[in-house]
């Protein structure tokens, strides 16, 4: 098991956003976390990435607890993420966005910079090579020198995934990767997600679009009001009575 | 082709440096020399503020305090302990940086307006302490008679004197400014500089790719205060007199305006602001309070119509030109 | 004990003035998102206007306060129109710099027109009252009562009038307010007028106790910022409460802790609070 959540609970004031949640992710899989609005999906991501700290429970990457780490520390452990609202460094060029994404894998600090050391040069070249590789991987070459804030929404989505990939993560968390784009663009993003999987990165994603989830997931976890109500492969989950009820309201499953 | 010595990115700064080096040879006007020396001092201070504000996005409004701490440290070390300029100056930089570390650690956990006002409050506190701690700082009477930089011995029995010599003082300060610019440029074009930009652009995203925002901001802040201390130390030796006003938040505003006027987040902007704003303000001198009114109006007009300063305006023009060409 | 009570009363008096200034600043911040650094300069103008009306024009003090408030409302609106509106989409730093420019303009125009000397109001309500061993002038009592009355009036204005509810809606959700047909640009203008008139009232009230001079606004601006940061930027109750608390801390701290450094107590307090709680006393996480 690459990644595991055990008994994860988070309350904000009196409200329990995530309640005693456990699930695991096998290396190389695509796992989707689905659920109606307000089910606590994004909170799970924020707990995993250290934005919020859990009220109870454990988060483990390769058997090591990563609970209580700060966001930048979690990233260094090998977990990268995207945000629900597309987030890029809007003022910087697409290429620069990808270069900075690789910063995590380079060690040069202030003194390397001051000395203009060989290490600094090496790290720079390494980061630029990584950025080149990702530009072609994500098919973003034509926007290379554009400011990231000025490129189309769907390309920004790909870029935000690219920034996360540039950190060379073991586990990639995608928060609604196709939110706010049209059906045709969905397909291009789905292809990218599958390419990422093929390159050996494990993926966990939050999604609303059921068709997409069913098509690409190896494993699905369903949340409702912060608790897990079902889990399994896409087919079994889609037939699960409590899942249908959670999505469509009680009584619907019986009628269907 | 891009590496050519004739590309504008190299040529223009090279010409400006040459002009700066040659300028005193063409004029014996002491007042002009004075303005040029002051431009070097403010240039260092503005470059330092630009590093933390323009590149790392942190609106530090305690810059005048660090300038004052640098000035008073070197002034006091030289006057009260008789320490030489060449030791006092680095100690001034380090003291300012140490205060930068002590203040940066708690204050950089705050954001936006909180950080701006918090640092401004620190600035006021520093000025009041300098003002009231008379046993150390002489308070309002001020520190009088701070010596000029000590002479530099050269081979063959020659020495460079700075006492009452505005030309040598100018070259010394110009050299300090160039060193400051060189180091700043090294930092902002390095991977560390990319961290600054990332934290300025989006702190949350920066953290999600493994950049420690707090550490990044602290590096920018402390480096900036180091150079603010340098500018203060040079000021103390050149003017020879210090009063608490030199650490006042008006100094912060003055430098801030220089940076904004020239162009925030550009290498040349702070230098342009630090060179020309004091000149404009000195030219308006005859008009006394009218000068400040003009200054204020100018500031508002520039910020509304040229929000990225002179450099921002020039870049826009340049972009239009190249677009028209292609 | 007498000293203590005397200081408490002084603290409440100065605190009520701080509350008014901070209240104006906080509603401007809440609506425009602009840290209006020129707020203290407008307070200074309010003090001058009422001083001139009373001493040179022989106008009744209360009428003078009203006229100053009206005049500063107009000036505030003009400032919104001329300076802040063109910057509405620019980074907040730009509005901040523009506000510094405004300080230079306003303070120095005052210096040119009225000169650098300190002005003293003619005697107004200086009857002395003694109780519980405390001596207090009538004017100080009037300041507190008037300030509280103005705070209540502001609250009523926001809750009961159409402009007030538009301001409240815009403060809560600018985009939503615009979508529901509120003219947020006009709200900006009204808010600056309103906030500025409060600063004018504060200046006019405190003028007869302190002296009136061109640079009198500087420290007040900073203290008002301290108050609204401690009280949560944009929060009205935070500004009111914070104003009184700061007044008390200053007057008690000045008497018992340090007289040499009492004017920086506020700033020391802020730096300390931010060091412990980076989002202010009542501030939420960003």
Shape of chain C: globular
The helix/strand order of chain B is: HHHHHHEEEHHHHEHHHH
Please describe the biggest sheet of chain B, giving its number of strands, its sense, and whether it closes into a barrel.
2 strands, antiparallel
- Which two chains form the greatest contact, residue counts included? B-C, 38 and 44 residues
pLDDT < 50 stretches of chain B: none
Quick overview:
By secondary structure, chain A is an alpha/beta fold. Chain A has helices spanning about 40-50, 70-75, 95-100, 110-115, 120-135, 155-165, 185-200, 210-215, 235-240, 240-250, 250-255; strands at about 5-10, 15-25, 30-35, 55-60, 65, 80, 170-175, 200-205, 220-225, 225-230. Chains B and C meet through helix 5, helix 11 and helix 13 of B and helix 4, helix 9 and helix 11 of C.
Description of the molecule:
The complex is a heterotrimer of chains A (256), B (326) and C (286). Chain A is an alpha/beta fold and 256 residues long. Chain A has helices at residues 41-48, 71-77, 94-101, 110-115, 118-137, 153-165, 183-198, 210-216, 234-239, 241-248, 252-255; strands at residues 3-12, 15-25, 30-34, 56-61, 64-65, 79-81, 171-175, 202-206, 219-224, 227-232. Chain A contains eleven helices and ten strands. In chain A, a hairpin with a 2-residue loop joins strand 1 and strand 2 (15-25). Chain B has 14 helices and four strands. In chain B, the strands form two sheets. In chain B, strands 1-4 form a two-stranded antiparallel sheet. With 286 residues, chain C is an all-alpha fold.
